[in-house]
Backbone:
């Protein structure tokens, strides 16, 4: 479980996050939704320590991330798997090397053991036999799947995904969404997905926080979202004609 | 940032692999460029020296001597370093800059890796270890070029060889290597700094690369003056 309490973040005079509190539950896909520029990416970068906060607390199963030393933060980060918007695969490494890299850095496994784990993770994301491809040879969907495999190779307790469906066609997006949800349930981890894709919300939204202008305006699940009378939430969710029809 | 860079690697076996990779990128891949440049500049230096020796009282072995000193004292350590600042420096800055804008550096940090040390330290060590070999090689190839150039300017091999050996001071080589080590550190660290702090997209990567080359070149010229003043004065 990840809990954030009263998070405040300023970039100069720009007040990006205002008193944000939320609990991301274990074993569920927790979604942060909101318009572009609402503060979603800032929040996720705060969670992983890439941005400092002005005030507030980030608790990973009760451990205050900002109160522990840098070395302890590094150890905690080894328990976090992160799926970046663009995949962030190391472009000078093959698919296999990308996945093997965290194992080489942080474990004492033999080459054979590492290879077995990598092959297991690649199989889990349906990418067998792609070990020797370079990131430049992968499609958008394959890149995301390799990135998911790399994120889970260390068996993390927390999985954070920043816009996992950006740039993907609807069919591939659903495959990625389902994969994230399956992995969350299978490994009983705390997953946070940052998205503005309403298809994702409908597909995997179990615990949702709607951020608007740096504040949490609404929380709930996908069913509650469809029936909410929160004006800002409705303006965001039912912006497209398809969802307006669904609402009617 | 330097403190973050110069910290013990998380895992030595991975660090060694990175170091070998950087040796190849920073050093081995520059060999052909250094050979071509050194040979032709060496040849041109000896031809120009011969061309300017209009006084018949000046012995022709001076072509060998002047070429040798020009190459050892200035051309090989300084000019080759300036060229390497362009080749290696821009490569380092753009590589790290690209990793920054595509979130690869963030991915390293999230894994719990000290990204500055992981990415920059092997490049600095590879440059500091490999550049002196490149410069010594440049001196040798430059002198072969000077000999070929001297032949075309009617300087005999015997005269040229006599000039090469005449009043040779091994200290000049030490001086050149000391300068090279400083320049190698400047090129790798300054370029890595600008790459690491890239913000934005592809245009920012290009800008970082240009800034890295310009800054490294200016610092090389400045340190060339300072080191020469300190060591040779």
Residues:
């Amino acid at each position: 479980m990840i809990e954030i309490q009263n998070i405040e973040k300023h970039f100069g005079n720009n007040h990006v996050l205002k008193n944000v509190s939320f609990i991301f539950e274990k074993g569920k896909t927790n979604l942060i939704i909101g318009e572009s520029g609402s503060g979603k990416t800032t929040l996720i970068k705060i969670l992983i320590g890439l941005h400092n906060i002005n005030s507030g607390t980030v608790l990973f199963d009760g451990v205050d991330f900002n109160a522990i030393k840098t070395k302890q933060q590094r150890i905690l980060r080894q328990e976090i798997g992160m799926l970046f918007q663009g995949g962030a695969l190391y472009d000078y490494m093959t698919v296999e090397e990308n996945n093997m890299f965290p194992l080489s850095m942080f474990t004492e496994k033999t080459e054979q053991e590492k290879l077995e784990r990598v092959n297991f993770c690649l199989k889990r994301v349906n990418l067998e036999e792609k070990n020797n491809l370079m990131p430049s040879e992968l499609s958008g969907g394959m890149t995301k799947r390799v990135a998911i495999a790399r994120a889970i190779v260390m068996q993390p307790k927390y999985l954070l995904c920043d816009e996992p469906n950006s740039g993907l066609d609807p069919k591939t997006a659903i495959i990625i969404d389902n994969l994230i949800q399956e992995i969350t349930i299978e490994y009983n981890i705390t997953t946070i997905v940052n998205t503005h894709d309403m298809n994702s919300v409908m597909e995997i939204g179990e615990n949702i926080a709607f951020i608007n202008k740096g504040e949490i305006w609404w929380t709930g699940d996908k069913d509650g979202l469809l029936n909410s009378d929160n004006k800002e939430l409705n303006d965001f969710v039912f912006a497209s004609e398809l969802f307006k029809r669904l609402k009617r | 940032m330097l403190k973050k860079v110069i910290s013990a690697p998380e895992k030595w076996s991975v660090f060694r692999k990175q170091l070998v990779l950087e040796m190849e990128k920073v050093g081995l891949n520059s060999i052909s460029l250094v050979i071509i440049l050194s040979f032709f500049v060496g040849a041109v230096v000896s031809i120009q020296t011969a061309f300017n020796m209009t006084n018949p009282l000046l012995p022709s072995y001076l072509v060998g001597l002047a070429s040798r000193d020009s190459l050892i004292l200035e051309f090989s350590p300084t000019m080759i370093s300036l060229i390497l600042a362009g080749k290696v420096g821009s490569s380092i800055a753009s590589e790290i800059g690209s990793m920054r804008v595509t979130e690869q550096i963030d991915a390293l940090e999230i894994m719990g890796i000290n990204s500055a040390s992981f990415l920059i330290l092997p490049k600095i060590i590879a440059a500091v270890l490999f550049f002196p070999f490149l410069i010594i090689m440049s001196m040798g190839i430059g002198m072969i070029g000077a000999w070929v150039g001297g032949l075309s300017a009617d300087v005999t091999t015997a005269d040229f060889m006599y000039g090469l050996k005449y009043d040779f001071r091994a200290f000049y080589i030490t001086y050149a290597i000391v300068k090279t080590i400083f320049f190698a550190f400047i090129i790798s660290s300054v370029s890595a700094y600008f790459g690491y702090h890239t913000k934005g997209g592809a245009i920012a990567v290009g800008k970082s690369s240009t800034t890295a080359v310009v800054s490294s070149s200016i610092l090389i010229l400045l340190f060339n003056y300072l080191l020469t003043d300190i060591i040779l004065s």
